[in-house]
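User: Um, any thoughts?
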Amino acid sequence: QVWQIPENGLSQPLTEPVVVLEGHSKRVGIVTWHPTARNVLLSAGCDNVVLIWNVGTAEELYRLDGLHPDLIYSVSWSRDGSRFCTACKDKSVRVIDPRRGTVVAEKERAHEGARPMRAIFLADGKIFTTGFSRMSERQLALWDTENLEEPMGLQELDSSNGALLPFYDPDTNVVYVCGKGDSSIRYFEITEEPPYIHFLNTFTSKEPQRGMGWMPKRGLD
């Protein structure tokens, strides 16, 4: 369901969605708007299917079935919206062209561990991933989509259990990394020079984090 927030904010509860999109056979866990095209929404469900919608007409534009053999952990659009990358339970990171419906690049076993991983596109087209090593240590990695054989940079953080969730600010090229159950958020700057991933600082609190969200800058004063 897609809801429209009134221009002046909520004054009463919303009861009717603007549109209802039906196409997945199982629960939907991921929704993300296209970065440049109006009214284009991507959804990924527990049926391992990615759908791309025209929200204005409730039309299914693309159905990407058969590209993922297991649960999709994360989806991230490239900055121009021509491609998106996914992290899957089969430990692969895939770069997908939605118009052709094909995988244009793939890295198997991007992180060796069995726990969930995440992948996000950066502004320059590189991919930043979080995951676990074979010894269950939490990792960060940076990948060049032109050559996914080896990561450009790889760092091991600690041996906590919570999956690391990356949030990216393209204006500063800083990635904020946090995890469920953690009481800290780490900041890393991504640069063109080795070692590419530079630790900046850590924010700590007394309470463990239960969930995280990213507010668009237009929502800040």
Observations:
- The chain has a mean pLDDT of 96.
- The radius of gyration is 18 Å.
- Residues 38 and 107 are 31 Å apart (CA to CA).
- The chain has two domains: 1-65, 67-211.
